[in-house]
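Field notebook, page 402. I keep forgetting to write these up properly, so this time I am using the form the group agreed on. The chain and the ligand, zinc ion, are recorded exactly as supplied. Prediction of the bound pose follows.
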Amino acid sequence: MDNSIRLVKKQQRELISLASRLIEIPTVNPPGINYERMVDFIEAECRDIGLKTTRYIAARPAEGSARINLVARWNTGRHRKTLHINSHYDVVPATENWHTDPFIPVIKNGRLYGRGSEDMKANIAAVLTAVRLLRQQDIMPGVNLELSFTPDEETGGAAGLEYLVKKKLVQADYALGEGYSGEFAAVGNKGMLWLEVDFQGKSAHGSQPSRGRNAFEGMNMAAAAVFGLARRLNRKQTRFGVRSLEDARPSLVCGGVVSGGHKVNIVPGRSSFSIDRRLIPEETTAKALCEIEQVLTAVRKRNPGIKYRVKVMAREEAVVSSQDEVFYPLFSECVRNVLKKKLKPALMTGGTDLRHFIRMGIPSIGYSVGGGDRAHADNEFVSIKSLIETTAIFTDLIKSLN
Ligand SMILES: [Zn+2]
């Protein structure tokens, strides 16, 4: 297997050029534009390497592009298992603070800069190049290969991979998708619970506060108690692998969104704050919600005038991929052969589209080209080393899995 890295290095120029051309198509989401151009481009590449392609359109919104999912298949045998590799092709918008034009790729100091380089266009180039290398060597993999290129990951993914999975348009025995890079592989993600706690008071003229009931005051007492809960959560820790101690703990952010109050001389009759609670796999959103409600109830007991409502804005349970005896051990061997390092499984703090496969019980690994850790940030980049190594790892994986 050692020669994969050598073969990839021989095609380094084509690999970087492919990643660059993908970056040049600004598939900015929201609102989700240039999707047709992107799918045309990837589809032509797929056909050039002999893959059969199908387009699945999930939606045609009034604004932006049609939500096109592209699936490319290499069927090697009817009774074989299928390896599915997903990459999303949309990118988040770029700010004015970039040093260079975010959609004109720049190669500097062993890095490829551009919006979406790490998240996750370099990965699309890696996947396509891995397949091309196998084709060039006339290697027939022991699995069927299914590649998906999906939109809308940056806005929740309902029209992307979630659509393909829910409609049973893709089929996977093993799944590989967005995740960590280098010596870490993502094997799951934390859960989340987003709440809005809305306090009701009674407005009155600012010169006669006793005629009203200040919703902001009640909110502050409640917020102080919620901060106390946030500190207590710091003592919990997951037993699953993580990249850092912070990742091992549940978390709670209070006040990401605060609203209420209209004017300096009016007693606020309404006031609200948000809660962003992240859960380790040992927790459930039901229990986390209960915990927060208990804290709020205790505040109300001490201050009977407080009135509030808790609204669940979003909730998702944590997921951890089921581990089988084939996929993870083999992937980790491929990583060791290329990087000469032992692969470490780790939870991600945020969810990726891979969660849809994980929920179905499909052994899944989140591993994609990285080296920058600057997804969504200004001056996003990937290291060219990671691009080459990941391409070699994918080549070896597809070649040896069965
Ligand atoms: Zn992404």
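OBSERVATIONS:
- The domain at 3-189+318-400 is CATH 3.40.630.10 (Aminopeptidase).
- The chain is about 35% helix and 25% strand.
FOLLOW-UP: compare against the apo run.
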